[in-house]
Amino acid sequence: MVSYEPSVRDYMSKSPRFIDVDSPLSDALAVMRESKSKYLPVVAGTRVVGILKDDAVRLAKSLLGSEEFTASDWMSSAPTVVLPNVSLYEVLDETPDNIYGCTVVQNGKGEIEGIFTPREAFLAMQDLAQESRRMKQIVC
Q1: Is residue 3 part of a domain?
Q2: Does residue 1 fall inside a structural domain?
Q3: Rounded to an integer, what distance in angstroms lies between the CA atom of residue 20 and that of residue 42?
Q4: 59 in a domain, yes or no?
Q5: CA angle, corner 103, sides to 110 and 31, nearest 5?
Q6: What is the 3-state secondary structure (H, E, C) of 85-136?
Q7: What is the pLDDT of residues 34-88, one digit of tens each?
Q8: Which structural domain, as residue segments, surrounds residue 46?
Q9: DSSP codes, 13-73
Q10: Which of 51, 67, 90, 96 is the most buried (most CB within 10 A)?
Q11: Has residue 118 been placed in a domain?
């Protein structure tokens, strides 16, 4: 019997928006609103250098003079970045300890292919639980 191990590619949100590290925070907020995203990868060239979270961006917006901030001023540094073929189980194992709340999926060419957030983790766990129940029914 051949078993299939799902990869993070199977559950990530594909082609997420991202922003340059030097972009004004107002641009980041516009991208997040447009894409309805709670997480926005921040890049320097092709290297992922941070994550902007919607709560940090909203806080910055509420501060006087927030239009002067850039993405680098409010991003969380050193986010978790994995290749698309990394095991889903490996990413789920790291999720509770991932202080940024998401994992960026980037291919070997430096292109951001996806993002894996708590929403995707929940959907993956639902699928895994359903598969487990189905397998129990087959065995019994």
Answers
A1: no
A2: no
A3: 6
A4: yes
A5: 75
A6: CCEHHHHHHHHHHCCCCCEEEECCCCCEEEEECHHHHHHHHHHHHHHHHHHH
A7: 999 999 999 999 899 999 998 888 888 777 565 678 999 989 988 899 999 999 9
A8: 8-139
A9: EES---EETTSBHHHHHHHHHHHT-SEEEEEETTEEEEEEEHHHHHHHHHSTTGGG-BHHH
A10: 51
A11: yes
